[in-house]
Amino acid sequence: MTSLQVNLPRDTARPVSVVHSPSQSTSAATRSDPTASYPFSAIVGQDDMKLAFLIAAIDPSVGGVLVFGDRGTGKSTAVRALARLLPQLRAVEGCVYNCDPGAPGGMCEACRKTAPGEALKTALRPAPVVDLPLGATEDRVVGALDLERALTRGEKSFEPGLLARANRGFLYIDEANLLEDHLVDLLLDVAASGENVVERDGLSVRHPARFVLIGSGNPEEGELRPQLLDRFGLSVDVKTPTDIATRVEVVRRRDAFERDPARFQRTWAPEEQKLRRRIAAARRRIGEIETPDAVMEKAARLCVALGSDGLRGELTLLRAARALAAFEAQTSVGDAGLRRVAPFALGHRLRRNPLDEAGSAVRVARAIEETFGA
Amino acid sequence: MTDGASALMDDAWGRMAFAAALFSVDPLQSGVLLRAAPGPARDAWLALLRNYLPDAAPLTRAPVNIADDRLLGGLDIAATLRAGRPIAEAGLLAQSHGGVLVLAMAERQSARTAAHIAGALDRGGIALAREGLAARQDARIGVVALDEGQGEDERPPAALLDRLAIHLDLAGVRPWAGVPSLIAPSQVAAARAQLAKVTTPPEAIATLVGVAARFGVDSLRAPLLALRVARAACALRAASTVEEIDLEIAARFVLAPRATCLPATPQESASQDSASQDSASQESDSPETDAGSAGAPDAPKNDNHGRDRPSPEDIVVAAACAALPADVLARLASGDVHSGLSPRSGHSGAARVSSRRGRPLGARRGALREGRLSLIDTLRAAAPWQSLRRRERPDAERLALHVLPDDFRITRFRERRETVAIFVVDASGSSAMRRLAEVKGAIEMMLADCYVRRDSVALVIFRGKQAEVLLPPTRALARARRVLAATPGGGGTPLAHGLDMAATLAESVRRKGQTPLVALLTDGKANIDRTGAPGRARALVDAMQAAQRLRLAGCAAIAIDSSPAASGADAPTRKIAEAMKARYLRLPFVDAARLSEAVRAAATAT
User: What is the SS3 assignment for B516-580?
Assistant: First the structure.
């Protein structure tokens, strides 16, 4: 960090504006075209996937969602649609890292410096949902020297990358299993520490990068590395619906949307608004949701029955159940909620049992029956 | 349908030509799979397409093995240095915006390249986040994938196939001139204008979804693409409402080629077989009959459940079936079909990125010790910063070029994945007394073979009460031979434990990015169970379970039976081999050549 300050001109008391590079405005357009976003509430079926996303939207601390499954099931559509449902963020005005004015501990260096003396200007902005394109190079992911400034003014300044923009929001990797290994390693490191440390091009920068990782992919194209799998709090298997009526409805809506996106969005706007309010309300409520001891015990028993490693599964299970309770306007977590979220929270954490050919879904279902059945 | 169009549909080349016109009506964010060997037919088809597409639409060719930076774009170093500010260079996808990208040797394209193209097809643009640039670029393109694959396994990546509307096979089709006189380019242009006015009755969607389901087409993109093709067909006959004939055309070009099963009418699953054979034999008798109006002759067959007129779905299904070649029909009828789109996407799967050898795959930032320096890429990386660095270090003015360690770019290669042969050797008393020497001989032969292929080997021995890894994966084959020679035999046969250990080893090998291959040598007389306690029954059950675990680990395996007794299908080793899905060989009948051939076959199958 010190070297960054040395490299910067002395009069940069507000380094935020200095590091904020001009090309930032263009990079905002990396986000999927907002005019062409399919409404979340118009997605037919795929209840598991939708619920997992809603849970992550209500409580980002569940730690990311992995959606793996058939082609053409609207995985990417759902993620992009989610972006329009997320409540706005209150962030330090002009801060490229979306720093939270209410949490000085997790701020970027620039915001932290200005905090004690003057009151920070804040503004509401949309929660970021950042696409990590497959062909992204490392410098754009972590951030690098600002090329434009270097060339035009001969100055050394840091241009934040995708990780900076994703802070306090969502980072979406489509075809996560095709991502290059060195980028995966990098993401894992940042996701674990919540901080992006850049040591390159003679720069030394660290900034907060806490984001919800959302990955999607098709298992036919290769398995996900176990380490990456484990990073996701929830995991959902999506399947193409087989019921003809559902399939017809999927095609009908998709076709209506493609032919006239604006009109389709108008039709669904009330539904979207309702869902948006429900998410916001659930976020407010989630702190008050009670978790009875009996439910805690059942969660623990379920995890033991499945032999899922470590406490992470149990923690995620409870958090997800709490988020679900908040979404459904309940006051406490019940057995039903636990049963509903257990497949997402635990399915991908099972140790592979070589003697059991059943898929993880079946095993979770079996363990649920054993735990709750009596 | 106009007369010209219906005349076209009666002929094999005519149908291919008609498909070109259909695609040209609505080409963007859609595509054609053109399966054909390079040759005059393919050239003629592409020339026709060029003729039908608007003049303004560029037809760009993408070579196989195209690198990410050519496909997606990046920093134009020369222009950047000249202008003194970053200048982006458009990649092939952005360059093709508004036009059609022709993908050469699509069956050889990697899953990554396919994913980039698929992304552009889905979103009509690409997100560029490369080399200091970040931008969203428009890339509304159509794709023509040239597929030169042979056989079922060699197909373009499934992600791509799923998004290409029309699937054509030019095999055996002879082009003739004169198509443009039947469908004129001006007619296609008129259809493009007409497309916005085309309306679709709600039943049409239900029909297409129903037809797709009956052909066993899972992906929901298929009926959506079929719907677009039906609209194009409607526009092409200058009509404004989609009708049955348009659905038939869509079904035969979009849905039938994706079929994974022969459509059955729900009420007559019993007569389904005969019906499908009928249509198959009919097809082979007169391959080009009743193409345009196929619904009528076939329909009565499906009509013995008391309806006067078959449902639109039945008619469309029948028409689409008529479009299927006889061999495809036969294959579908026998159920011998890949689950829709082949999961193994054309190119060999067991390849990985390497830093030492293989086919060059572009460069990435890295330290010198990590691989081979790519000089040009390093200079490219250093170029934009020269003026800045010169200013920062005036003391080093004499330096012509300021290159910092951060600039170093390392060439990456794609190489064949290394195989690790895990030998699991029975050194128990029952085995050792008679045949250990023979077994050792066989292994030495295989070791020599592994050496030739530069594979690594590992050695697991089981005897007495348990198994042990005698040799972790190594390239030092001489050492393997020495260790093996010094191994005494004797004791019980803890087969289950040996297999368990092999499975654990195989999993760790796979985690390192290598491909495990298990070669088991045993007489199958397991008599020690997993806990180390003696007992034949329990030991065999455990061994079977351990074998299943190995199969689930998904590694190739061979099992070599060293038991001297002439034993048939119920030989224990054969059962174990079946449980682990291994190729089964018997030692007395196996000579050196066959052994090494077996190992080679198993190794290359992975």
Answer: EEEEEEECCCCCECCCCCECHHHHHHHHHHHHHHHHHCCCEEEEEECCCCCCCCCCHHHHHHHHC
